[in-house]
Design brief:
Elements (H helix, E strand, L loop, with lengths): L3 H7 L7 H8 L33 H12 L8 E8 L3 H4 L2 E2 L2 E2 H12 L4 E4 L4 E2 L7 E3 L6 E4 L3 H8 L4 E8 L2 E3 L9 E4 L4 E5 L8 E2 L2 E2 L10 H20 L18 H6 L6 H11 L3 H18 L3 H17 L10
Parallel strand pairs: 1-4, 1-5, 1-8, 7-9, 8-11
Antiparallel strand pairs: 2-3, 6-7, 10-11, 12-13
Helix pairs in contact: 5-7, 5-10, 10-11
């Protein structure tokens, strides 16, 4: 029987099979105020104390907001488009992952994460100089930055008729406003578009105008760091395009971050509350989606040396074991 906590954050689970219901029941742990709730499940870690209700977005609240926001707009398609915005360094365009080009890899990873949606890459890349946007030179890094909001009107026009949304992928650094240093990415739900940058020139990574290290690069392969930045930013911003707000329930891909360091440490996956929202849009089977994601992560592990990718694949193994009716007590302390 579904408990009140789960019903509050997830909604009714009556239409799901017993295993899926058991999986979503794990979401109730975020509403427990006692320390023991932290040990409720080794798959998801609640954020305690729970944020004020004004900052929460439950499944029912998300569903209602989606209804209101789409009531008078055309129905979106089921294809997610990725648009490279050049120029890119030769070292980036030459990247291969398991025999796939960088853009093919991102397409396949997004297809796995948003299992049920079609994902395509719009090629050739569009030069940034062709886009009417505000630019500045960062005072610490001496690198060009683009005002991210100026990209949305262009991206919206580039979205084909069958598109759900389009994500612009740039090497050039982005900033959200004159008083802020940078932004990893930003999405506009209304304009069906988002933009991310993976050539992040973060000021504290520089000393005397020279880059001293790559964020998160201690013990990590530089290629692995770049791929990790890309897939996490891509999936996070695309989830915003599906209406997901920042998550305050669990440690989750949709947690808000204010620095590269913070974003780098966040999970690659969605908590049960956010996953339920994504499932409503993509219409996937949870187990099937995790299997496809695991296959992509194993390709990453073969291509680069990264403990983060390895740990993420191991986490998926544990989720799959749970869904395969493993003893629930095994996942409790």
């Amino acid at each position: 029987m579904q408990d009140k906590s789960t019903n509050y954050v997830i909604g009714s689970l009556k239409k799901f099979d017993d295993v899926t219901q058991k999986f979503y029941q794990l979401s109730g742990g975020c509403l427990q105020s006692t320390p023991s709730s932290l040990d409720q499940c080794k798959l998801f870690t609640p954020i305690l104390p729970l944020a004020h209700p004004i900052h929460r977005q439950t499944y029912s609240q998300w569903k209602y907001s989606m209804f209101v926001n789409t009531m008078f707009r055309r129905k979106r398609g089921r294809t997610l488009y990725l648009l490279p915005i050049g120029p890119f360094p030769d070292s980036v365009t030459a990247i291969e992952v398991a025999g796939l080009s960088l853009w093919e890899f991102l397409r396949d990873f997004a297809s796995a994460f948003f299992h049920g949606l079609d994902v395509r890459v719009l090629l050739p890349e569009v030069p940034l100089e062709y886009i009417n946007c505000t630019k500045r030179v960062h005072e610490n890094t001496n690198q060009t930055q683009v005002l991210v909001g100026d990209l949305f009107p262009f991206l919206q026009k580039m979205c084909p008729p069958d598109g759900h949304s389009v994500v612009g992928i740039s090497w050039t650094d982005l900033y959200p406003s004159e008083d802020l240093n940078f932004v990893l990415g930003e999405a506009s739900f209304v304009q069906h578009s988002a933009a991310i940058s993976f050539g992040r020139f973060e000021p504290k990574l520089y000393k005397d105008g020279q880059r001293v290290r790559e964020c998160g690069s201690e013990g990590e392969d530089e290629k692995a760091v770049m791929l990790l930045k890309l897939v996490k930013s891509l999936c996070h911003e695309t989830c915003h395009l599906i209406g997901l707000a920042h998550c305050v329930f669990f440690q989750c891909l949709m947690n808000e971050s204010s620095s590269m360091e913070q974003a780098f440490k966040q999970p690659m996956f969605l908590c049960p509350v956010c996953l339920r929202k994504l499932q409503k849009i993509c219409r996937f089977d949870i187990r099937e989606r995790y299997l496809v994601l695991r296959e992509m992560l194993l390709k990453c592990c073969e291509a680069v040396e990264s403990q983060y990718f390895a740990d993420s694949a191991e986490w998926l193994d544990r989720c799959l074991s749970f869904l395969d009716n493993a003893d629930e007590e095994e996942f409790r302390s």
